[in-house]
Every structure is written in structure tokens, then in C-alpha cells.
Design brief:
Shape of chain A: globular
Mean pLDDT of chain A: 93
Structural class of chain A: alpha/beta
Strand order of the largest sheet of chain A: 7-6-5-8-9-10-11
CATH class of the largest domain in chain A: Alpha Beta
Order of helices and strands of chain A: EHEEHHEEHEHEHEHEHEEHEE
Number of domains of chain A: 2
CATH superfamily of the largest domain in chain A: Formyl transferase, N-terminal domain
Largest sheet of chain A: 7 strands, mixed
Number of strands of chain A: 13
Helix content of chain A: 25-40%
CATH topology of the largest domain in chain A: Rossmann fold
Distance between the termini of chain A: 24 Å
Strand content of chain A: 25-35%
Oligomer: homotetramer
Number of helices of chain A: 9
Largest interface: A-B, 35 and 35 residues
Low-confidence stretches of chain A: none
Chain lengths: 296, 296, 296, 296
């Protein structure tokens, strides 16, 4: 078997002595073998973070009888979370045999959409694109070409709540665990985010906190900066203020007009969003407060 | 002779047909040979910018009688400026035999100071460091080690005007043509900038416009960004808002605490400031409005 | 009119005084207006290079009667080339109303192919993809999805000459002016390159000259380098040795296995190849000897 | 106490289940608290690597009676190494209260030398520069300015063995634990490296394996590459072939002549060498075969 079946835990809580040893010991005593363990201490905040990935003892047995795997994995995950609670930690455990279902929200720009889907086909993501939702129907044909269900839900200024209710219904019906805003040009309300209660990743076309808000490439050109950037972050009800997952930049000069910035920016947006999505789906990202810990 | 004696003109003004040809023709008719000519059009603003560098006809003759060079160069520069006026352009002409005298303003941090002086000794700048001015005396010994005159001018909260008057007097007395704020931790007043009436280059330790103001590395750490940066810009009376000459960034992760950001930032600050100073002294930078054109 | 009709000349030859002025003067005397002029001197080799773009006097008139444009442009181009000859220079003149037809050669990898076609649809290239040629039929469906004619020409070890003859016939029949090797895994013979006699751009998946030859990501992993790269170059009969147009790199660590390098490399290959193709189609690249001058 | 007293172990050996738990358990049972633990598996080679840093139980007690610290640390280190042997692992343990003595070898170029010493003064390195050795006396004055003992040991073509013997004697006498070749332009013999038997870090001014050997900037200019680089590696008797610790690159264009490459390269060399030295002195680098694992 190329990649063994593993469990991946992300945990965090108040720092105290012995955490690394106790987590490793718990896994070892149950016959598990740790493949990767990475941790971080926020010294100022006194918080301990860990990502640990291990092969549980029953993984080999599962090769013969894979049908029982999800149950066993779910049980092991539950036991680990209970153990983490005894350490005063919050934990989230994912299984490598589970591929989350993902929805992509788009508007009219198609570059991030193409990029995500093609990377998905190339096997870059541990998840399945299950659904496309858009406030416009421009990309319906492209989605069809990729065999992806496309839902056109217009968002009228006065009927945003109704539109968001339809979106939420779709997400629940399809058991979506992650929403990607791939240049979706609508702000999601706090009600939507609370209602979904799962992660939403957005791509902002500037190196936040610079040029928050609309038309960042116009702002950048106006200000005469020598770099432009893109920022992937978890969406929160504070616009452009959620925990940053990844950022990257490119050099520009006076020779670049706004159209050039837009073109160069498309490359940044694709790369930065894809990297953030990959890390998230590999269970490498822990958000806390306004920040993230990325175990890359 | 390795590098020939040249004149370098920076000019800009309303765009109109034929400017490139007329400038090239003017130089050619006077026996000059253009080595480099670079131009830029700001299509939106309708402004034409040009940097042109040429060997004047008398350059070879000067090899025999170099004493007359400055006069001839000055006369040619004056004639070119007059010609530019007839095109409706503003021009500034520098001669490659003239090395501007430069003052460095410092406070307590020494990294940019060491870096600038050592690069100067390595021949990276077309100018001479003539003077160091500081509101503290911490770096007096280092300046002495480099044989650079050091002037300690404390800036008391209530006596800023007096301190700036002393600074201006020194700059005039030593015929300083460029001031570099090498992590000088005082804001220069509009009166000082008007009084000096020559360029002042500052290094700001963030990728402006993000984290303007004080303690940018603390702000960056607090916000959880994944990149930090530095910005070299011409100082104006609007703090952190002058035309940007150069910016660069470095990746950071959750593992970096504020001290790490400061350490990584020192490298950025050195590199970005040195690059801006080199371009300025090579007469490659044209500031207009809040922007720069850098003919690199 | 957003973008005016222009002529773009790329010229080079032995350096001598007055070239910039004479080229600018020639254009000016014929009523042309220079939009951009960039030049370079290779001091060691004594060679002068220039890219000059201008609006010819008849451009406005053409707005009314566009049918006559190609003829006038062709005539102006011819006249300029003749003029360049009198300066001892070689010149190539392109018209902004002409969009070259481009063929893409692929094998099994599809990332550069998707990337080029999608960028083409987004308007990033001054050319038309007219033809896809492959030694495998894996990408036939994708090409069809993009409405691009796909030709499967297998290259048997002993029948390479025949395969190349078929390829050449297609290229001539479709009047192809540029071939892009988008991870085409066959070496083109000197006979093919001579027969085509037009530019061929290849993407090599390493930062040449490191890891020339096959399986560069395996070589890089074996050597333990901390950066990987990609190189776009004009193909010559010396494998991996043609003039380099563009290179870029990405950092890697011991954590990346060969598959990770391949994945990260795909992003580099897409970006580097697309940039080289864009520059080439914008008439910004002059190859001479083993090098290129890129007027970006 | 800002930074607690810690022990840092670097270990590697054949991979097997339970290693993470057993190492963590051993430390925990002895009252130690793990601050950082990072590991890596080379899946292809079946090798396990770990860096683990912990506060030993006696660290607090040491605050009162620091004189006994080195003994206790040495004993704990010895015990850990014995334990690692029982796991089939090789281990090296360093104590955070020990600052290794470092020798810098230079020739005539001074940029890396200045850079290292100034970074040392700024507190960037966990070590002490104790000695400068050079085959020329050009930098004697600079070393004196920094209060560093300077030894001029000329290396005549026929008397290399004698020169190296003198160097080795100095290194032993001063208990040097790391040698940095800061643009030292002599090749060290296998005999010297065996005789020293401790790490030697070299900076090569190209992105190895490209342009190995002499005059890499000339080679790069000749080849027309669009990036230049620098490589810090452990010196081995195979010239330019030792395990790579760090590499970085910078973009160049046709406008840059060899002198420009040299100037831009100096910045790369300084940065890359300093980063490699910092990582090494922080006990973050494990060399094995031709590669390194860098726990950054």
C-alpha cells in the first residue's frame, strides 16, 4: 500500500509540561505508529498546538476487510478527542480515508475555478468538488464541461437572506464540509457563516491588510506600490479580517497598468488559493483568534 | 577609459507625438552619442517620462584636459534643460563626473548604517557619504571607525524646530544633495523638508500601505500575516505616504515571534534601502505625484 | 480606439554612434509616433539591440478603411527593414494587427496545455492556437473540448524522420509561426528545426544548466537541492542548450519527496512557459548566440 | 528567565514503529519538558530523523547554582546518547548554555566577513567568532577593528600541506568546533577535513549543481541564465559536492554585466551563508549522505 491509512489530529489548548510525551504515549500504548508530529508553542499566549498523524493498530487488518474501516476510524477519533479533553485540549481528528465534499462559490471570473478543478483532477486535493454555486450563470457551461452540478442562485440586493437560505439548504443537502469562495463577489453574512458552521476559505486580491475592500488592483496602481499580492483567509463576519492562511506577492513596476496588475494577480490568486485549500484539506491548518498555525 | 563621461537627463511632461525623436535628434545634432534611452507613458495621465544617457561630443577631448570638464558639462546640462522647456517638459540633468554628497541620519539601530557604508566602500553608490547626523550618540564610535563626521543633535520634544535648524545648517554647509533616513526614528517636519528642498529617502519596516505608523513588526505579528516587508520611499510631510521607490518581502510563519520578524526585517530593510539609494544616485528615479518611475 | 495599430521592430547589429537618433529620426520623418523604444548594448560583444514600437502615420486613416491595413503595414515593415540594412542592422518587423498562428506539441502531461489554452482564452497572448500535435492520443479529448484540431502522430523509434515530416507538413499547411513544446517528450531533430525555420519554445523542468537531460526532479531530489526550477528556452539542435528566455524557481525542503517536486514543478513550468510565450508573441525577445535579450 | 536552559538532540537511524513515543517517554520519565520536537522520515531510504529540544528537570535548580550546570548537562547528554543507541540511532546532543567557538577563513573578499561579524554582534548566532585565518593579509586591519585574532597563513602551491598543518594546529589550540569558509579561495584537502573532523561550511557563488568550479558568475553570464544563486554546503573532499544546507537566487536580465552579477551575488552569498551558519549553530541541520535535513 503506497500511503497507509492514518488518523490526523489537530489539537490546541493551554500549554503545560509533558503534553508531547502524553500524546505520543497514548498513541503508542494503543499500538499506533506516529508518522508525523509537529507542534508549536505560542509563548506569549501560553498556548500549545499540535498536529499528529499516526497509523492506528487496526490499519493493517483493514487491508483485508476495508468495509469496517470508517467505523473503526470514527471510534478511534472519538476516543482521541475524549483523551485530549482530559489534557484540557480541544481536538479535531480526521481520517485519511475520508474525503470531504467541497462547494465552490463563483461569480464571473473563471481563473480560480478552472485552476481548482484542474488541480483536483490532478489529485492535488484530499477532497471532492461536489457543487458549484454562483450568483451569475456565466460559468454554467464550464461547470457542465467538468461534470460539476451548477446552481445559479441570484443575489438581489433586497433578497440576500433568501438567497443565502437557498445556499445553506444546498450545502446541507450535499453534506458540504468546506466552502471555497473562488472570486465570489458577494459578502457572506454572519448568519450564513453561523448557519453553515464549517470553514469557508476566501481569496482576496491584495496582500492584506493593505488594500482591503473593493478594487484592490486599482488601489495598488493608484498608490504606486512595487509589489502586489493575494491573501487566502478563512471568512469571518468581519470582512477581509479573517485568519490568514497564505499570502504571496509579485513585483510590479511603473510599466504595469491596472490590466497588467489584474493579469499578474490572477496567477497569484490561483496559487495562493490552491495552496490554502490543499493545506486545509490535508488538515494542516489550525485557526485561533485572528491567526492560523499552518503545519506545512 | 572603462566608463565614458556621460550626461543623464530625467525629463517628464505632457505626452505628445515626436518626443523620442526630437530628444534623440537634439543630442545627435550636437555630436552626442546616446548610450541608453528609456521612456514611459502614463496613458491614463497623459504624461511622458524619459531617462536618456549620452556621451557628449567633448567627452573625448576632456580626456586630455579634464579640468575643463565640469564647466562644459554644466553648460551642456543647462542647454538641454532649456531645450526640454521648449518641448513643455521639466528636466533634470546630472553628470557622471559629479558625485553628490550624502548625509545619513540614524538613531540607535546600526544595521542599515553599516550596510550603507560598507556598500559605499565596495563602490556600489555614485555618491559620497559626507556626514552622519543622529538624535542619539550611540553610533558615534562606529561612525568614527568609518572616518565619517558624526553630529549628535538631540531632538527634545519641545525643541524640535531648533534641532531641525541645526540639521539644515549642517546640510547646507556641507552641500548635501541627498539625505538618507537609515532607521532615523524622528518624523521630519514639512518645514525641514521645504528648507532642505532636496530628496530625502526613508526606509519603512513594512510593506506599505500595510502597517503604516509605529511598531510595524508588532502589528504584523498581531495580525498573523504570512509575509513581512520593507518599503523605501521619498519622505514627504505626509508620514509614510511619500512616493515608493522599492519594496521587498519575506515569508514568515507562525513559528516566527516578533524578535524573528525584527531579525528577518533587518535584512529586508538593508536590501531595500540600498537598492533605492543606488537607483536614486544613478539618476534612475523620477517621482511624480505619489508615485515613482524607476528606469532600472 | 483602446490600443492603436502599431509596428514593432526588433533590430540588432554592430554598435556605432547615432543609432538611437537615426532610427527615431527615420520614424519621425515618416509621420510615425514612437510609443516605446528600448535598447541594449552588449559592451563586451559591441552589439546594439533595439525594440521600437510606433504608430505609423496611416494608422488613423485605417480606422475608416481597415481593409487596406495589412498591405500598408507590410510595406512599412519592408521599408524599415531596408533602412535597417543601411545601418548594418538586421531587423524583424511585426504588426499589431497580425496574430501569428501557434501549434502546441504535447505528450501525456496536460498541465501546461490547459494553462496555455486558458490563458489564450483570457486574452493573454497575441496569437492564435491553431493546432495540437501529439505523439500520444491521451489529450485528444481535452483538445476537442477546447475546439482545437488535434493530430496524433506517433513517433516510433525507427520512424522519427517520417513522423517529423508529417509534423512539418501540418505546420506549413496551417501556416504556423511558432511551435510550443508543452512538455512534449520527444527531442526534435536538427532537420526538423531547419525545416520549420521558425521559433520553437521548449519548457525544461529544471533551472538549467543544472539537471539537463531526463528526469530532472529525480536528479534534484537525489542531489538534495533546496530550490527547484523551470526554464523556457528556444529549442536548438543542442538539447537543453538553446537561448534561455525565462527561468523561475521555488524553495523545497527535505520534506518534499519526488512527487512533491513534480507537483510544485508543474506550477513553475506553467508560469515560466506562459511568460516566455507571452514575451515572444509581444515581440519582446531577441535571440543571439546562446542568449536572449528580453525587452520586458 | 527569558530562554530556559535546554538540551537539543539530533538523531537518526533506521525507521521503526514507536520511535517518537519512546523518545518522548524517555524525556518525560526523567522530568524533562519537550519544547520542540520535529521529525522526518525518508520513506525511500527508510531512515528516521529527529530534532528534539527539552528543558531537563534540573534546569530550574540550576538557576540557583549555575556552576554545576555544564556537568549535569554533559551527563544528561551522555545518557541520552546511550539511550539512542539502544534504539539503533545515532545521536548528537548540544546544550543551550554551550556556545561553540568558530573560525572564519577568508581570502581577499570582505563582504561575507563583515556580514558574519556584524550579525554575530547583533546576536544572530549561537556561537563565538574566535579566530580569523587567511591566505592573504588584506583583511588583517578589518579583523583588528573587530578585535578578532587574525592569522595570516600563506598557502604556497608546493607547501599546502604545511599551511594546512598550521591551520589545524590553530583550530585545535583554540578548540574550534566550526569552520566557516567565507569566500576562502583555497580548496581544503581531504587530509585537512579528516584532521579537523568537525563541520566546515562553505559558500559557493552559484546555484549548485549549476556552475560548479571557478568563476561561476562569468559562466552564468556566458550562458545567459535569467537567475543567479548561491549555495551554502558542508565542505567535503569532493569539491562543490557536499551536502547543501541552503540556496537562494536572484533574477537577472540581459542588462546585467558580470560586474552586476558579482554585486548582486554578494547579497545572495551573505544571506545564504548567514542562514546556513545560524541553522547549524542552532543545531537544526543533520547531514546524511549527500543531503541535509534542516529542521527550521
Amino acid at each position: 500500500m503506497d500511503s497507509p491509512v492514518t488518523l490526523i489530529a489537530l489539537l490546541y489548548g493551554p500549554d503545560k509540561p509533558g503534553l508531547v510525551a502524553r500524546v505520543a504515549g497514548w498513541i503508542f500504548e494503543r499500538g499506533g505508529n506516529i508518522l508525523h508530529a509537529d507542534q508549536h508553542r505560542d509563548m506569549e499566549a501560553g498556548v500549545f498546538f499540535q498536529r499528529v498523524e499516526w497509523v492506528p493498530f487496526f490499519a493493517e487488518a483493514m487491508a483485508d476487510k476495508p468495509s469496517g474501516a470508517p467505523d473503526k476510524m470514527a471510534q478511534a477519533a472519538e476516543e482521541f478527542c475524549a483523551f485530549a479533553t482530559t489534557l484540557g485540549m480541544q481536538a479535531r481528528v480526521a481520517s485519511s480515508v475520508h474525503r470531504p465534499r467541497v462547494a465552490i462559490f463563483v461569480s464571473r471570473a473563471d481563473h480560480c475555478f478552472h485552476d481548482l478543478v484542474l488541480r483536483g483532477k490532478a489529485g492535488e486535493f484530499n477532497g471532492e468538488f461536489a457543487l458549484v454555486i454562483s450568483n451569475h450563470d456565466d460559468l454554467a457551461g464550464i461547470a457542465r464541461g467538468y461534470d460539476l452540478p451548477f446552481h445559479h442562485i441570484p443575489v438581489a440586493a433586497k433578497a440576500k437572506a433568501a438567497a443565502e437560505a437557498s445556499q445553506l439548504e444546498l450545502l446541507k443537502k450535499h453534506d458540504i464540509e468546506l466552502v471555497i469562495l473562488a472570486r465570489y463577489m458577494q459578502v457572506l453574512s454572519g448568519e450564513f457563516l453561523d448557519g453553515f458552521a464549517r470553514p469557508v476559505i476566501n481569496i482576496h486580491h491584495s496582500f492584506l491588510p493593505a488594500f482591503a475592500g473593493g478594487r484592490p488592483y486599482h488601489q495598488a496602481h493608484e498608490r504606486g506600490v512595487k509589489i502586489i499580492g493575494a491573501t487566502a483567509h478563512y471568512a469571518t463576519s468581519d470582512l477581509d479580517d479573517g485568519p490568514i492562511i497564505q499570502q504571496d506577492v509579485a513585483a510590479v513596476t511603473h510599466r504595469h497598468n491596472v490590466d497588467d496588475l489584474v493579469r499578474k494577480g490572477r496567477d497569484l490568486e490561483k496559487r495562493v488559493l490552491a495552496q490554502a485549500v490543499r493545506w486545509h484539506l490535508d488538515n494542516r491548518v489550525l485557526a485561533y483568534g485572528r491567526k492560523t498555525v499552518v503545519f506545512d
